[in-house]
Amino acid sequence: MADFPHLSRRGFLNRSAAVGGLLVVPGLLTACSKTDAGAATGAGALDKLREQGFVRVAYANEAPYGYMEGKELKGEAPTLHREIFKALGVDELKPTLSEWDGLIPGLQAGKYDVVSAGMAITPERCGNAIFSEPEFISPTALMVRKGNPKNITDLASAKEAGITVGVMSGAVEGSYAKGAGIPEGKIKTLQKPQDGADAVKGGRVDAFLLTGISLRWLAKTNPDTEVTEPFVPQLDGKAQFSPGGAVFRKGNEDLRDSFNRELKKIVSDSSRYVQLLEPYGFGKSEIPPEDLKTADLCKG
């Protein structure tokens, strides 16, 4: 099997940057270990969800992964999860908003049944919850000015052209740029995605490096830019796929397994996958490789 490191940009950013990682606080997790009496748990969890007609899902209000627009829950994860649970006989998603670092503790406490937030699969998180197989990977891309005047396609071409590349503060893309041999003097740190788009439009950087998912979403409101075809960066010789998935409470392996069976049908059908998730910036390049497995990602 290929070597699939678990590192994810979404595991490196804090919430002020709109995407982030879970800081595992043992005391907090212990305090939340008592499960709500109404939670669907154990071998009969799916039967209970079918009987009640809904599944409680948590989201972090982070576009394009899971967010509320008016009274409708939208995004990659809710769209995919709604399709899967309908196939399992559960017709409705009941959403609960959570701060990012409260998602897994709230799951453990039985406040909801599934985290629908596009959460990155990491060994640390696998210690506190169980993940579905990957729903998506997050290849990297570059936002450039309309017309791509420097003809940049990836980090190798960026290095060769000697351009200035923007990255977000605290994000793993900075290490990707350095690993590709781009000099530190040619790497400009920015605080949030819109800062990156503004820097590209204003000529302060020639390209802004982020996941293709986030950049395609950002480009919707920045028409003077375009996004290159996504590519999988290398770091220390290892491909950086940055996969994410649905999260379940420990003890709900049967529910997770049922979910996985329906998920496999979707990720194995590229046209169906794209039809469902293209409105949120996900395309064929985000479909997980068949041999990318959560069990391996959880080992690190």
UniProtKB/TrEMBL annotation:
Residue ranges of domain Solute-binding protein family 3/N-terminal in the record: 54-284
Tell me the Gene3D superfamilies matching this sequence.
Answer: Periplasmic binding protein-like II (3.40.190.10)
Q: Name one GO biological process term.
A: ectoine transmembrane transport
Keyword Signal found: yes
A Pfam family annotated for this chain is SBP_bac_3
- GO molecular function: any one? ectoine binding
Keywords of the record: Signal
Superkingdom of origin organism? Bacteria
Q: Per its UniProt record, what CDD domains does this chain match?
A: PBP2_Ehub_like
Keyword Signal applies: yes
What is the name attached to this protein's record? ABC transporter substrate-binding protein
Specify the species: Streptomyces nanshensis
